[in-house]
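User: My collaborator sent over this chain with a note saying "see what the structure looks like." That's all I know about it. Can you take a look?
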Amino acid sequence: MTATLVKPSLLIHEIYVEKVGNLSLFRFSDRLQDRMESLLEKRKVEPLSVEEIPELETISELDRIFTHMNAMLAAQNVNS
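Assistant: Without extra context I'll predict from the sequence alone. Here is the result:
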């Protein structure tokens, strides 16, 4: 039972830039956001499958990265 690593680059088409006020922020597509929420909800009630675990880990890592990048962009906008 080996988990397959999901490459973050395979999800790049699910990320876009949205203009919010004066900021351009990174966002997940509705499909990717829904998938992340679905996996998080499923994890609350039952174990994730061997395939779902690395998928959620990858999506969560991308979420952390883009949340950090958006925070840096917002801080840069405030300071300029």
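A starting point for your reply to your collaborator: Residues 18 and 25 are 5 Å apart (CA to CA).
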